[in-house]
Write a structure and sequence with these properties.
The protein is an alpha/beta fold and about 325 residues long. The protein folds into 2 domains: about 170 residues, D-Maltodextrin-Binding Protein, domain 2; about 100 residues, D-Maltodextrin-Binding Protein, domain 2, CATH 3.40.190. The N and C termini lie far apart (about 60 Å). It holds the Pfam family TctC.
């Protein structure tokens, strides 16, 4: 059946309007959903990065905290949101990867229900000990553990630092006993007091205490030494080949968000991550800026897939199971 000139004109006009609407993104404020309470690493990164993105997008970026279930509630909310770019998840390891190994029902699949936009940052994990522990290097720590298993605290069962500890033990042969705490900050008083002798935690948490001599950071699981503490070696330097681990934060949209919407968000993310404001604050906090390839949807997707594989193997070896 032949289409009338009016029908064709209406259809073409509709397409033009649709394209114009997408090109105009964003027309209002953008929400960053942080799946944890205010004050944590993800919240800090969200507010810094969002501040930088506001100028590029020309609209405010509003941070909204939706804590609960180890981050799964906030992540699930974003996964089920309208895929229009106005509701985004800025989340860490837990809701993106770890939770599926420790929660019987998460409610979403990261790579199926969310669209990675870019990785923002990584805080390397660090092996830190009480000064009385007779181990100043990774080799000495492993050797000491083989004479008597060392209790090592982490920020909780199934946390990113727990998975790192299990990977570290499997890689080095260290004999460790996992001691879960509520958070990385919660374990520090016991580590300072000596009732906890060692911990695997985010590098930024014990850094000030390390400088004061109250704890000793043996090594960090990063590619290179941190400019804020160049005296601390990496685990790779210390003989743990290829060992990298950290608490990361990334930006994701609901699956199905159009590429035309993802593109300006990702561009604004990169501009923000390269800004003096963000770089200066990250440096002060001991947060590593990621390489440009990880700031892309493809790079961040590959990063998540790799972390899933590493955690799946660690869970299998260590017997980590859903609660």
């Amino acid at each position: 059946m032949a289409l009338s000139r009016r029908t064709l004109l209406a259809a073409s006009t509709g397409l033009l309007l649709s394209s114009a609407a997408r090109a105009a993104f964003p027309e209002r404020f953008v929400r960053f959903i942080v799946p944890f309470a205010a004050g944590g690493n993800a919240d800090t990164v969200a507010r810094l990065v969002g501040q930088g993105m506001t100028e590029t997008l020309g609209q405010p970026v509003v941070v909204e905290n939706r804590p609960g279930a180890g981050g799964s509630i906030g992540a699930d909310m974003v996964a089920k949101s309208t895929p229009d770019g106005y509701t985004l998840l800025i989340g860490p390891n837990g809701p993106l990867v770890n939770n599926q190994f420790i929660q019987a029902k998460v409610g979403y699949d990261t790579l199926r229900d969310l669209a990675p936009i870019g990785l923002t940052s990584i805080v390397p994990h660090a092996l830190v000990v009480h000064p009385s522990l007779e181990a100043k290097t990774i080799a000495e720590f492993v050797a000491l553990s083989k004479t008597r298993a060392i209790e090592v605290a982490t920020s909780g069962y199934g946390s990113a630092t727990h998975f790192t500890l299990e990977r570290f033990a499997a890689k080095t042969g260290a004999a460790v006993v996992h001691v879960p705490y509520r958070s990385g900050g919660a374990l520090m008083p016991d580590l300072i007091g000596g009732s906890a002798r060692a911990a695997m935690t985010e590098f930024s948490i014990p850094l000030a205490l390390h400088r004061e001599g109250k704890v000793r950071i043996i090594a960090i699981a990063a590619e290179k030494r941190s400019p804020v503490a160049p005296e601390i070696p990496t685990m790779i330097e210390s003989g743990v080949a290829g060992f990298l681990a950290g608490s990361y934060v990334g930006l994701l949209a609901p699956a199905g968000t159009p590429p035309e919407v993802i593109a300006p968000i990702q561009k604004a993310l990169v501009v923000s991550l390269r800004s003096k404001l963000v770089l200066d604050q990250f440096a002060k906090l001991g947060i590593d800026v990621v390489s440009p390839d990880l700031m892309t949807p493809a790079g961040f997707t590959a990063f998540i897939k790799n972390d899933l594989a590493l955690c799946r193997e660690a869970a299998k070896v260590a017997g980590i199971k859903p609660n």
